[in-house]
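STRUCTURE:
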């Protein structure tokens, strides 16, 4: 493999990028001046060195390792409510709607409909641990499932209700979904603040 093919393989791993687009990126870089390419390389390394995940909610943010994020460490955060989203972009969108002041949990993906080894796709173990801790320490009252309204999102919603069943009964919190107020096919990542506000108001 020559360097063009090698780098193409790396770009092909990016979400939504196929062979042709990957190659276009490579040629784009070949046309750029060396400073740009060097800076790009530095920025990528910088990203890995300065951005870490919150050990409690798994949000990416600028920090040293093992530091809690601003939401988890803020005493004003409503600890009786936990909202579960698929990814960071969903979290950002809900935060922007300014209609929710509780805790979050980033699941890291959706549960695929046809595979058995779920835990490798989503953070189920971490979620259970987080919820149990929050139920013990802060009398958790409500868990909000805020997943996209597509088949995989709905499947994940059902799956989470199933695995949270025992904890729900033990600690007597309520599990609700953001379904109502969102139309079928809605992806949280692309929803505007007004839509999210309505969905939060009509959670059930
Ligand atoms: Zn956090």
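SEQUENCE:
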């Amino acid at each position: 493999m020559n360097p063009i093919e090698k780098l193409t393989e790396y770009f092909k791993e990016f979400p939504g990028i196929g062979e042709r687009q990957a190659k276009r990126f490579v040629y784009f870089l070949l046309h750029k001046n060396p400073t740009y390419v060097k800076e790009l390389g530095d920025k990528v390394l910088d990203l890995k060195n300065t951005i870490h995940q919150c050990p409690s909610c798994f949000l990416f943010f600028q920090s040293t390792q093992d530091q809690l994020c601003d939401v988890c460490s803020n005493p004003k955060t409503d600890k009786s409510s936990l909202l579960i989203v698929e990814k960071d972009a969903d979290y950002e969108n809900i935060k922007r709607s300014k209609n929710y002041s509780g805790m979050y949990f980033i699941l890291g993906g959706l549960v695929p409909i046809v595979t058995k080894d779920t835990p490798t796709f989503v953070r189920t173990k971490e979620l259970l641990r987080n919820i149990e801790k929050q139920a013990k320490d802060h009398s958790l009252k409500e868990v909000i499932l805020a997943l996209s309204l597509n088949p995989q999102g709905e499947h994940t919603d059902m799956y989470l209700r199933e695995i949270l069943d025992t904890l729900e009964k033990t600690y007597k919190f309520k599990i609700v979904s953001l379904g109502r107020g969102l139309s079928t096919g809605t992806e949280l990542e692309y929803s505007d603040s007004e839509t999210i506000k309505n969905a939060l108001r009509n959670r059930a």
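REMARK: The helical segments are 3-12, 19-31, 34-50, 70-73, 88-96, 124-138, 151-171, 193-201.
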